[in-house]
Amino acid sequence: MKASMTLETNRKVPFWKVFIDNVIHLPWTWRITIAYLTFMLLMPITALFLKASTLPTAEFWEIATSPLALATYNVTFITAILAALLNGVFGTLIAWVLVRYDFPLKKIFDATVDLPFALPTAVAGLTLATVYSENGWIGSFLAPLGIKLSFTRAGVWVAMIFISLPFVIRTVEPVLQEMEHDVEEAAWSLGASQWETFWKVILPPLFPTILTGVALGFSRAVGEYGSIVIISSNTPFQDLIAPVLIFQRLEQYDYAGATVIGVVLLLISLVLLLGINFLQAWSRRYDNR
């Protein structure tokens, strides 16, 4: 009888009261973490989805799949992926040089890597547009070859490479520093060449870290606005990226259109990042076998 009364009482307790009671009794570190993530991450994202949900489904789909929106997704995501992959290769190489070699002015070279972190994005765009323009230091050599970077989609790619490069280097560096040099020497003593040692001994445990750097660089490149709006011509169906299209919609007081494109950007980025996390988990399991 008593057990049945207790069960009936538990059934009457609302779910949200049970949830709040559990949260209140969590350790203070958990409570601070939940509160911070709620205010800084979950609430803004929820507000974005709620704003988009006020639109009828047909109108949402029409805005999200308009030819202009699809063209901006293409420019934004394909260019960001290509920039992140290139940085995955060259960022790893630069991290290797910084960790394994000592050379004059190494500290200055090392500090220069962080410059895209500190440089205002508008200044970065102005600098890149100047250097890669037809009259710039690098653009003047490329122009006779018919290669134009500034105010083209290639310029967007260059800007994404510039601002996302440090993410790969700074992610790979600590792992390279922790790697045991004895393992490489053991591989050499067994007759492995330097290339075989890198491919079969060093790269497998390093690969998940490189993927992490690539994912961070990709995320940064997708969200970039300040430098790209300067180095590109922002021409629709050519080099117009989605963040610039969102800003243009806001300037036209088209808040619904800006929100829909923002939601689509968020969802595509989330799917791609989940895919990269899946690759990281698969790589770790493969490495532990």
Automatic annotation (TrEMBL):
Any Pfam family: BPD_transp_1
Coiled coil: none
Top-level taxonomic group: Bacteria
Keyword Aminoacyl-tRNA synthetase: no
Membrane topology: Multi-pass membrane protein
Keywords assigned by UniProt, alphabetized: Cell inner membrane, Cell membrane, Membrane, Sulfate transport, Transmembrane, Transmembrane helix, Transport
Keyword Cell membrane: yes
PROSITE patterns attached to this UniProt entry: ABC_TM1 (PS50928)
Transmembrane residue ranges: 28-50, 71-97, 150-169, 255-279
Localization in the cell: Cell inner membrane; Membrane
Location, primary (coarse class): membrane
Domain ABC transmembrane type-1 per the UniProt entry, residue ranges: 73-276
Function of the molecule: Part of the ABC transporter complex (TC 3.A.1.6.1) involved in sulfate/thiosulfate import. Part of the ABC transporter complex CysAWTP (TC 3.A.1.6.1) involved in sulfate/thiosulfate import. Probably responsible for the translocation of the substrate across the membrane.
PANTHER family with a match to the protein in the record: SULFATE TRANSPORT SYSTEM PERMEASE PROTEIN, SULFATE TRANSPORT SYSTEM PERMEASE PROTEIN CYST
Family stated for the protein in its record: Belongs to the binding-protein-dependent transport system permease family. CysTW subfamily.
Assembly: The complex is composed of two ATP-binding proteins (CysA), two transmembrane proteins (CysT and CysW) and a solute-binding protein (CysP).
Name of the protein in question: Sulfate transport system permease protein CysT
Source species: Okeanomitos corallinicola TIOX110
Phylogenetic lineage: Bacteria, Bacillati, Cyanobacteriota, Cyanophyceae, Nostocales
